[in-house]
Write a structure and sequence with these properties.
2 copies of one chain form a homodimer. Chain A is of the alpha/beta class. The first copy, chain A, folds into 3 domains: about 5-45, 434 Repressor (Amino-terminal Domain), CATH 1.10.260; about 60-160 and about 300-325, Response regulator (Rossmann fold), CATH 3.40.50; about 165-295, Rossmann fold, CATH 3.40.50. In chain A, about 40% of the residues lie in helices and about 15% in strands. Chain A has 12 helices and 12 strands. Chain A has helices at about 5-10, 15-20, 30-40, 50-55, 75-90, 105-115, 130-140, 165-175, 190-205, 225-235, 250-260, 300-315, and strands spanning about 60-65, 95-100, 120-125, 145, 160, 180-185, 215-220, 245, 270-275, 290-295, 320-325, 330. In chain A, strands 2-1-3-4-5-11 form a 6-stranded parallel beta sheet, with helices on both faces. A 6-stranded mixed beta sheet of chain A has the order 7-6-8-9-10-12, with helices on both faces. In chain A, α9 links the parallel β6 (about 180-185) and β7. The interface between A and B is large, with 62 and 62 residues. The first copy, chain A, binds a DNA duplex through α2 and α4. Chains A, B: InterPro entries: HTH_LacI, LacI/GalR-like_sensor, Lambda_DNA-bd_dom_sf, Peripla_BP_I. Chains A, B: Pfam families: LacI, Peripla_BP_3. Chains A, B: Keywords: DNA-binding, Transcription, Transcription regulation. Chains A, B: It comes from Mesorhizobium ciceri.
DNA sequence: CGAAAAAGCCAAAGCGCTTTGGAAGACTCT
DNA sequence: AGAGTCTTCCAAAGCGCTTTGGCTTTTTCG
């Protein structure tokens, strides 16, 4: 059942039927009702390919997925996706993942924009002066950044969490507990979130006349193994820290294992605070010693990004509004006063 | 730059240009070269929306993503996606995720087929007599099932691993080591993979005149917490098992924690074998006691599914061929002889 | 009451591609 | 040389929708 048939069966023109269905004003309400009615009764659904060719609207949002044999997709992604999908579903939006060579995403962005494959895109894990953000901005497609970039001469729309504030609070707590040597096991140091977290820790230390020594900060991919290695290196070196801030729950698994392997204990010898993105399958309260965390649901962020994308597509949201969500500091058993 | 302009500038008809570019035989090789050349020089790329309207081909593969506030997307998904994306990239395929109410995926499947939104779909985590498989089969869109369903009066194409064989081998090893009371901490018991794994364990036990008692098998969502709870329940009950087979590395984290909490040790008191889907961020050799595993890269499966989908779309693959991949049994420190 | 404005509808022209049904010219064969 | 066969190209008809421009008919208003 296509528009032509429907129009014919109603003894109306395609124009009128189309307008009736799309809510244009120049059609009699009585007629509109008839049309809507017939459309529903016959289960008419406009062919998206045709509509798309005519209007350019796709009803899809895009994400360029970096891939490659040596590229690991972050497990956070799936949780973000849960939120995004949940919102998208309620608005009949689909998500198209365009895989791209991790080293050349530009081609793919250009393609999906030139081909009008999606109505909007989002960008995740941005870095300062992220080229993707600059590119997408000039290409003129609506977009939202999940996270923040920095150092542009233009503003853009983003949804981020207060990474600096979160780690500032975490560090402050540890300092208040008497810790003087803090360490930071961070994610990829080229990404903004990691920079912000480090800044938060440094600021808290500085406020007490302390510093974060270079040996005590490491930036690694967020795997269990890297958490383990970093911790061993930290605790076996001179000036071992008495407290660790860690950027992910997965790395925290490795931290805990390393501490145990060294015959030390949490929080007796080392206090630990990790960032929790709220995975359903790994929860900080279930660690052998319940983990103190900075907590922010990445799933909610996904839903929010979808919501904003939808708003931008329909023209409800404009401008370069950035929003920063506060992060909860949840204190559990993994922190204690500094050892004597 | 569209076809019309390109044709005009070459003083050829759109027909000829189109045919030249799409490799049809009825065009002079000399002409074809000229066309290809001009196309490349001017960066001509056929508009996919138009092509799509004309041919029905989309260059996209689809996946219906169950969503909802209480629906958690499996972290395995992201690893599968890595492989799928990696292959899709090299073949200029995009993946469209259509979020659906987890309790009504049928509507979404019907929509994406009726609207011709994708050229093929894949289905994951199937159950016996899975309705999605039956539906997609009747809808007539090319598809591949990742995993297996059962109990249909038709055949279909799938890529699965030998879950039964894997857990049969694992159980056999444990039995050989003298274990008599095995337990199975399984995934969702409604899914085929879980059924097959249980069958594998039972078969191995039966071969030695043993049985898997009901109390010793549990089917739960694969979270760390569920692994913990199941293990406590198992080990604190009467007839506590001396060996555990576990369906995921994430649950195995909980198993290890529970064993430790009970003051027991692996493999001294309990042997443990888990299934490893090969996550980059959590590796069995890095468990406090290196974990024996049944190993199969879910990422490779993703790539394979993409490959087969691409083959089906282009007509290179037909028929209902199912393939079952063998699973490696990797023995590490977590298994030992049964305690006296 | 007649002109101007508004309401309601339609035919047809896109959107940019593929594909059908020729047609013109070159070549082969008897 | 004429008939038949390739080869190579083209005009035009879709694909199913939206939208422009215009045409009636009805309503409004001085």
């Amino acid at each position: 059942m296509n528009l032509k048939q429907l129009a014919h069966m109603l003894a109306l023109s395609q124009t009128t039927v189309s307008r009736a269905l799309n809510g244009y004003p120049e059609v009699n309400e009585e007629t509109r009702r008839r049309v809507m009615d017939a459309a529903k009764r016959h289960g008419y659904r406009p062919n998206p390919s045709a509509r798309r060719l005519a209007t350019g609207k796709t009803g899809m949002i895009g994400y360029v997925l970096p891939t490659g044999a040596s590229v690991d997709i972050d497990p956070h992604f799936v949780e973000f996706l849960s939120g995004l999908g949940d919102y998208a579903r309620s608005h009949e939006l689909d998500l198209v993942l365009s895989p791209a060579d991790a080293d050349d995403q530009e081609t793919t962005y250009r393609r999906i924009v030139a081909n009008r494959q999606v109505d909007a895109v989002y960008i995740s894990s941005p870095r300062p002066a992220d080229r993707r953000v600059a590119l997408v901005n000039t290409l003129g497609i609506p977009f939202i950044v999940h996270g923040r970039s920095e150092g542009f001469d233009f503003d853009y729309a983003f949804t981020d969490i207060d990474n600096e504030g979160a780690f500032h609070e975490a560090a402050r707590l540890l300092i208040q507990l008497g810790h003087r040597r803090l360490a930071l096991i961070n994610g990829d140091g080229r990404e903004t979130f990691a920079i912000h977290r480090e800044r938060g820790v440094r600021r808290a230390l500085a406020a007490s006349g302390l510093t974060l020594i270079e040996r005590h900060v490491c930036s690694v991919d967020m795997t269990e193994e890297n958490g383990y290695r970093a911790t061993r290196r930290l605790l076996e070196g001179d000036d071992a820290p008495t407290a660790i801030a860690c950027s992910s729950l997965i790395m925290a698994l490795g931290v805990v294992r390393a501490v145990r392997d060294l015959g030390l204990s949490i929080p007796g010898d080392v206090s630990l605070i990790a960032h929790d993105d709220v995975f359903p399958w790994l929860r900080p309260e279930n660690f052998s010693v319940p983990l103190s965390t900075t907590r922010s649901s990445i799933r909610l962020a996904g839903a929010r990004v979808a919501e904003r994308l939808a708003a931008r597509i329909s023209g409800l949201e404009e401008g370069a509004r950035g929003e920063v969500w506060p992060v909860d500091l949840v204190v559990r058993g993994s922190v204690a006063g500094a050892p004597a």
